Structures are given as structure tokens and as C-alpha cells.
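Annotated sample (chain length 218).
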Amino acid sequence: MKKLSLFLLAFLSVAISCKQKDKSGPATNVPPVSTDSFMITDSSWGFITAGMAVEDVKKTYGSANVKDERICGPECMDSIDVTKVFPGQPDEFTIYWNDTAYHRIISAIECYGDQARWHSADSIKIGSGFKDLLRVNGKKISFYGFGWDYGGTISSYNEGKLDKSNIHYRVELFEENMQDQSLYGDTGLESDMPAVQKVLDKIKVWWITLSLNNPGKD
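Output written by the structure step:
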């Protein structure tokens, strides 16, 4: 499966309503960054916040751990300039910029390393079970079928706790020799569907994205 940006894939999936923070106000309006260096909140990723530019990231994590890179965009039809932090290491994550030329305004941060330690305040991390995500959300979850470029992208939290979060997740079915093909391809699935319930223990979080500085969200 191609590793495409969940932030960019979101433009092609059903929009998720997210809480918009006031970016024009003073810094005191922004919740403080957690002292947990691997915590992801609605306004921060570890010690990175929305107001940071690439030079601030280098000061925070060290220049040797920060590397600019050009990667494929959706379906590799174009390329995107991003910044990798801890490149090649288990905790690697990628920063996407609203201004790719200057790297001053962060649009999103994402991670899909299966050994990464990044986690939400609800202890959701890569490798967490779909049941954990459902427990935190408190409502059913809608998502796309598996096995294609946009597979496992969550399209709606159906007014659950995660519905207005800036943290987004993507799930995958880890089941060999799966016989039920109804769970694959460009199709909408619900967590309470009988076919999904049968493999619920095999579905896990495999991608985390934090959206920042994105206008037009209530």
C-alpha cells in the first residue's frame, strides 16, 4: 500500500468537523504543550506547536535530527516539500507546510512508524486496536474499505468525542488470507456492520495526523 499523506487524503474523503483554534490571538489562548515529550494534543505534537517555523523545530529537536525532503503527493501525481524529524529512526514524523517554499507555517504533522511512541492523551497510538478508538469516541466510526490508496481513512466519528479533534487516525486490517472481500476497495464501512464486527480485533491504528493552521474549520 502506498504511504500517502492522510492530511492530503482528507480532501478526497468526507470532511471531518474539527475545532478551530484562534491562531491570531495571543499565545495564552493556546493550551500549554504537555510535558510528555511524546504526547499529541489538539494544538501540539510533542514540543512542536502551530506557531513554529522550521528553524524553531531545529532548535527544539536539533538540526541533525531535522531534514527537508521531497516526497510524492497523492497518487504520486506531483511532489511535496516536507520536513522529516528523526528521519530513519523509530519515532520519525513528517511536517507538512502551508508555505512549502519557506517552511514557516505548519499545516499538518503525521507519523506511521509501527514502533513510534507518539500517542494522544487517551493513549491512542500506532498499533492501538480499533476497539480502543471506539471506546474513546463513544460512537460508531465510519471509514473507507481496505486495500487501496485511501483504505482505512476515517470519514466520520458520528458526533463522538473525536469528532471535533484535530488529531486524525487511519486504520488497517491485519488479517492474512481474508476471505470477505466486502471490506476492501472504494466502499464505505461502519464499525457496527456485522462484517466489520467479525474482524474488529484485527483492525488497528496505523497512521496518526495532527492538523494545524487550517482555516475554515469550526
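Annotation: Residues 1-33 have pLDDT under 50 and may be disordered.
Annotation: The chain is about 10% helix and 25% strand.
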